[in-house]
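User: hey, got a sec? need Cell division protein FtsQ folded
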Amino acid sequence: MLKRINWKLLFKCFAWIVCLVGIVTLMSFVSVKKHTVKVTNIKILIPGADNFIEREEIDAILKQSEGQLIGRKLEEINLHDIETKIKANPYIALSTVYADMDGVIHIEINQRQPLLRIISSSGQDFYIDKNGLKMPVSPNFTANVVVANGHILEHFSGRVDTLITKMAMDLYKTALFLKKDTLWDSQIEQIFVNDKDDIELIPRVGNQRIILGNADSLQTKMTNLLTFYKEAMPKVGWDTYKTINIKYTNQVVCEKNKPDSIVGSVSRSKVTKPTIASAKKVMDSLVKAEIAAELKNNPEENVVRKVPEKKNNPPVRKIIPKVAKPVKSAVKQP
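Assistant: Yep! Here you go:
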């Protein structure tokens, strides 16, 4: 008779019963203690470099929703309601509120992270965060992000909301792509939408406008631009072209500056304030260093050859580029 008993199954059932009894006992102990525990402290954690929200504002929300918390019993405080009211703040993406058995209420807050600042054609000013949601600007803090302006028809109601127009979505995709790349994050300082609804990128280095068009095939377009930077810019200079059009995925179309406009830009740069000039010089070297690093990946680009030594003449070394076209043809006026 004893051999027919499944001792393994009986032991599992007994273990589950013991665990269940233990959990019930623990919960009852916590429930009993909760009736006696009083709030002793409130700890607020707001990580991140952005300062859209301050502790004083959280204290104001707590006071408005629950009144004085220190000294009150935990069972009298609705932690879920506090969490909901904190989330209602447009600068807060996520909040977690909980209490421990020592009477300490913990509030952890994650702020929204702005990616792009929009100034619409109607004059509205707002951010788009990393999740593609609109959020208001803050009177207390200004985020260091790319600014987009021009023919932008996106409307902002003043509260956190999703994007409506295709143009706003394209601007978000473009800013997200630029942010993920260290070179373009350093090089592009502004985004402009012209009357033809083409997105233009305004660089820090160079006086040209980069016509992107829309956010389709971003990787291909920016790869074409990087190739153009590496192959053409070292030969013709950073201020030769007025526009660089990369809206077509299979080609790069450029429009040259007039000679007098180039001279004008040089003369204007001489009267620029030293602080701005030095900042531009640093950024210029930063971006050019990034491109130079790309060039180092292809060391065979330049071939060094020796010219035979003539009588009474010292040996001459010439650096002959691999590209067949000479530099003069690249800057020749059409």
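Quick note: The longest helix spans residues 7-34. Let me know if you need anything else on Cell division protein FtsQ.
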